[in-house]
Amino acid sequence: MFSQKVYSHFPNSSHDSLSHLSHDLYANQQKQWQMLADGVSALENVQTRAIDCGTFSVRLQYNPKRIVSTGAKVDAASIKERKCFLCVANLPAEQQGVLFKEKYLVLCNPMPIFKEHFTISHIDHIPQSIEEQILVFLELAKELSPEYSIFYNGPKCGASAPDHMHFQASPAGLIPAENEIDERREIKKQIGVVTISAVKNYERSVIVLEGKNEQEMELTFLRLAGAMRVVLNTNEEPMMNVIGSFDDGKWRLIVFVRSKHRPAVFFKEGNDKILISPAAVDIGGLVVTPMEKDFRTVDAEMIKNIYEEVSISNDVLRTIIEKI
Ligand SMILES: [Zn+2]
User: Fold this and answer.
1) Tag placement on the chain: N or C end, fewer CB within 10 Å?
2) Is residue 293 included in any domain, yes or no?
3) pLDDT over threshold 90, residue 76
4) Which residues span the domain enclosing 106?
5) pTM (two decimals)
6) H helices within the chain, ranges in order?
7) What is the domain-level CATH number for residue 210?
8) 206 CA to centre of ligand 1 in angstroms
């Protein structure tokens, strides 16, 4: 029964904030659901390592449990064969969530990268698509602030359930890009109250949208997606990862424009294989390595190469911004 999956509602008659309800859910689910408790305690022992990449830094996280997600088969045939793990009917018996506006369930991720890590899943099995859901993304960013940031992985660049619409949320400020973007951004354009910036010396192709008006943020994001579609010459959703936050009455969307999902080294054999599969968190500077060998050997040069390989060129990025 669907109602058994609902731990609490947002909004509710007590006017609890979504961030409070989500935090409360996470604490409760750790007591009720062993898989989550195990995931959280495993995270306490993961090793991390900082890599100085010159103009920016990256943190590696050696997290063996993430092999399921990092190594996930996301081709159409494999997706069709498996039971969708985000459909309400297939959730583990113990799993419950916060029902957001009768449309999305805020769920705890049992294989967390962060101390609190949520998957925010649509209650229906509809495909991953940010253009259709950008308003919800903006609403969630606001309602989860200031405690959490929200992020999105495109169906072909990081989502392990490309067939089921979902976002994720993490404690604000834990993805390095969230703290590094401000000092590197160059304002390129202003549309209404929305500022459009590029980010320099970052080895990744990034466009930042900032503004105080929800509707104008929505429209500008849709214009950006339209410009990407034209310049990148695709009928599908342009490949992107998006990190969203809301602070001091203002939204900020950090959009990583992608040329491909996985770098060539991901597909190599034996010792040459590096199991790094960049999604929003990784391209944002917190790189998850499920294999110990990779955690020990990956260096700044490899990270820069991977970032460059999965991003687009500065020229193409400039053309997209011109076309917005
Ligand atoms: Zn589903």
Assistant:
1) N
2) no
3) no
4) 2-262+308-323
5) 0.97
6) 18-32, 34-44, 67-70, 76-81, 130-144, 176-184, 214-231, 280-283, 292-297, 300-310, 314-323
7) 3.30.428
8) 30
